[in-house]
Write a structure and sequence with these properties.
The chain has about 250 residues and is of the alpha/beta class. It has nine helices and seven strands, in the order βαβαβαβαβαβααβαα.
Length: about 250
C-alpha cells in the first residue's frame, strides 16, 4: 500500500498539497495536524482514502503514534510533505522563550524525527519534502529564530539529498517568499508590536506556490524557489555579502 503523509494539512500549503496528492493514484493520504474538524472537512473533499491524525508534533508522543501506525499498516511512503510550521515576527526579547522553543521543535526537530520515522518505509522514487522558506537564505532581524530554523532545514535537506541519492530517495526543500492567503502572516504578526513587517509586496497565493513547487518536487529538484522573489534572493545570497543583504532587507521592508 502506497501512502503520502502531509503535516500541517488542516490549512495553508499543507491543505493544497493534500489536494494535489489526491491526483497521484495513492492508496491512502495520511492527514496530520492539530485541528481535527479541519482535517475531517479536507478528508471529505478528497477522493483518495484518508486517515486523520490530530496530533501536535511538538509533543514527542505524537511521533510515537505515527511510528506505530506505520509499523502496523505495512505501508510504503511515496511522499512525506512536512508543511507544519510557524514563525513569529519582532525582536527576540518580545517573543516568549517557550514560543521560540516550540518553533524550533516544530520547524526542525519534528522534521528530522519524521524523516527518521518514515525512512524504513521508503523506496527508490519516494519523495521527502520539507516546506522551507526563502528566509533560509540569509539572517533576518526581527525574524531571527524563524529564519534560523529554515536555514537549518535547508542545509539538512541538501545534505540528506546527497546521502540518500544512492537509494533513489528524493529530497526537496521548498523555499517560497511570503504566501498571502495562509494563516502564517496573521499568526507571525501577533508579536510584531513595532510593526517591523508592514507590507508584503509580491506575495504569492497558496494555490500557485503549491502547484509550482509540487511540479518541481516530481522532477526531483532539491532546492525549489517557486516564485520570482525567492529565486532572486537565492541567487543574490550566493553572490552578495550578507551584510549588504541585511541592509537591503530593512530597506525593502
Amino acid at each position: 500500500m502506497e501512502i503520502a503523509i502531509v503535516t500541517g494539512a488542516s490549512s495553508g500549503l499543507g491543505r493544497e498539497y493534500a489536494k494535489l496528492l489526491d491526483q497521484e493514484g495513492l492508496d491512502e493520504i495520511w492527514l496530520v495536524a492539530r485541528r481535527r474538524p479541519q482535517l475531517e472537512t479536507l478528508a471529505g473533499e478528497l477522493t483518495t482514502k484518508s486517515r486523520i491524525y490530530a496530533l501536535d508534533l511538538t509533543d514527542r508522543a505524537s511521533l510515537l503514534t505515527l511510528q506505530q501506525a506505520l509499523a502496523d499498516s505495512q505501508v510504503t511512503v511515496r511522499y512525506l510533505l512536512h508543511a507544519a510550521g510557524f514563525g513569529k515576527m519582532g525582536p527576540v526579547a518580545a517573543v516568549p522563550a517557550g514560543v521560540l522553543e516550540n518553533m524550533i521543535d516544530l520547524n526542525d526537530r519534528a522534521a528530522v524525527s519524521l524523516v527518521q520515522a518514515v525512512l524504513p518505509y521508503c523506496h527508490a522514487g519516494s519523495h521527502l519534502v520539507q516546506i522551507c522558506s526563502c528566509a533560509a537564505f540569509l539572517p533576518i532581524p526581527e525574524l531571527a529564530v524563524y529564519a534560523a530554523t529554515k536555514a537549518f532545514l535547508l542545509r539538512y535537506s541538501r545534505a540528506l539529498a546527497v546521502e540518500l541519492a544512492p537509494q533513489g530517495i528524493l529530497i526537496s526543500a521548498v523555499c517560497p517568499y511570503w504566501v498571502k492567503d495562509t494563516e502564517f502572516i496573521a499568526t507571525a504578526s501577533q508579536t510584531d508590536k513595532g510593526r517591523q513587517f508592514r507590507h508584503f509586496p509580491l506575495a504569492g497565493t497558496k494555490e500557485a506556490v503549491a502547484r509550482r513547487s509540487f511540479q518541481a518536487v516530481k522532477k526531483g529538484r532539491v532546492v525549489i524557489t517557486p516564485d520570482v522573489v525567492s529565486t532572486l534572493l537565492r541567487f543574490l545570497s550566493g553572490w552578495i555579502p550578507q551584510s549588504i543583504l541585511l541592509y537591503g532587507s530593512r530597506w525593502f521592508r
